[in-house]
Please model this.
Amino acid sequence: MRSGGLLAPVVSLIAVLAVTGCGVGFGAGDQEGNAELVVTRDYGSGVLVSRTVDRLSQSSTAMRLLDESAEVETRYGGGFVQSIDGISGSAGERSSDWFYFVNGIAAERGAAEFLIGPDDRMWWDFRDWTDAMDVDAVVGSYPAPMGTGYDGERWPVTVECRVEGPACDTVEDRLSSDGIDTAGSDSGADALRFLVGDWESIKADPAAARLGSGPDVSGIFARFDSGSSGVTLQGLDVRGDAVREFGPGSGLIAATRKGEEPPVWVVTGTDPEGVLLAAAALSPEDLLNRYAAFVWNGQVGSLPLVGPAPDGPGFGGPP
Amino acid sequence: MSRVSPLSYVPRRATLQGAGLAPVALYLGAYLFVCFLSSDPLVLAAATAGAAVAGYGCGAGRAVRFSLRLGAALALAMIVINGLVSGRGATVLLRLGEWPLFGRVDVTAEALAAGAVIGLRALGTMVVIGVWSACVDPDRLLRAVSGVAKRSALTATLISRLVPIAASDYSRLGEAAGLRGPGAAPVGRAAMANRLLGGSLDRAVDVAATLELRGYGQGAPERDVSRARSRYDRRFSVSGALLMAVAILSLATGVGSFQTYPTIAYSPGWLSFGIAMSFFLGGFVTWRRRRAGDR
Model:
């Protein structure tokens, strides 16, 4: 058969499949809804791009959406982002590269293969990964992933209360006001858990215990120290070194994830007062573009601690 | 119809056939080098055209046409396969839904372009190898190699002789099958291949015995070792060295860099055009003025 004779049936077949709605058709194909794109550097401390993508398509991948908003250079056959707007990955004594999160969860596959849907929040960050390559979950896209799910998966949300007082109610109220329904405390292993309690009461939980293993395991740049003078919260820098100690009344909000299990959010503190402060900071404004957040003396700051020595509690990171 | 494979070496009074092995290797090696390593479509197309011109210049037109046909089919296959397998690239032309094994299939302009560059590279490489195969005496090559790797040289010698023998065996078997009369069942290619494969060991032993009888193990004749320099040696040495230098320069400076993902980025400048012209015009090095008595 001549090639010209073959072309007509092939085009007709594609047209029929397109009309019957099999996901087949010419072009990228329109899709209703918006997505959000944020590009930052140094653990969210500097915002380079922030925009709402209002023209989604059925073929909108993380790479395509990024390419629409920034100058992108790739490596390894287009699957790996090497540079965005001239900021290029580097390897040496300290290694920095571009990483991306979708709805606050580190994507497990290349940006060219990850489809972005309506209401997704895509966050690209250029960071030093020498001492913590795997940061699997962050809090900076709150209320995602609770409201949005991740990669087609939605987890029921549970609040596990390990502390007396109003902190747990505050967490539930915050979640409720952000449109997230909680499913009680016994939704099993498939639930996205909010672990609420002071450090002494939650530290035995396997998810919380990961903090003790350091940021290279937990992806959280903080740890608690139970000394003779009480529990303190230590803020770590990008090398994993403790550079600041927060005393009584300090709180922490962080997310962690092991493998493909649902993420676990930890709302904790040195004491019940710190837990309450952390619970009160559970809002999109306070957590925006943060990997994890500490709360101390009425202020919210970013973890890891980035930049020069602090004058106040929130040095480095988003204001 | 000729039974000789289009890629088989045919002795001719032409430039490449008459020149020494090292100058020819340098000259065609420059083309091979650039076809393997360059990603500049302009340079790749020019190198392919230049290699074809070189082949025509030394009477290997049949090998060039065969290589072009084979290479074009391969290039087309690479375009199609890359278009289906690699959904990368920003410009989606076609959505083909979810496929088993492939997953979601989006055909993008960038994936097609990337496939085309790979295909162009394969096409150029095939033309260069085709010209080499048709113009360089394999015995000379094997003699040169035998001093370094004796066993490999013997294996290569056997293969280089078995391939044309298998081709003529295939042709004879086909003719014999055709003589069985119009009522006989057609003989499929698989049956023919099976028959050829079954007899290949015997044929290899025959070839080895013939080689031994003709003194293969006794080394090259004296006159071959001290072969007189060809008047074309300098021509290919100089042009080969120049083309190789140009190829290395273009790769070192990244001229004509062709980026396909996430969007196609290509900006060929004058330097890229100059390099391409060098490789195209370099093909005419094999040409010579016809003299009285030349066929």
Summary: Chain B touches chain A at residues 86-90, 92-98, 104, 106, 110, 114, 259-263 (CB under 8 Å).
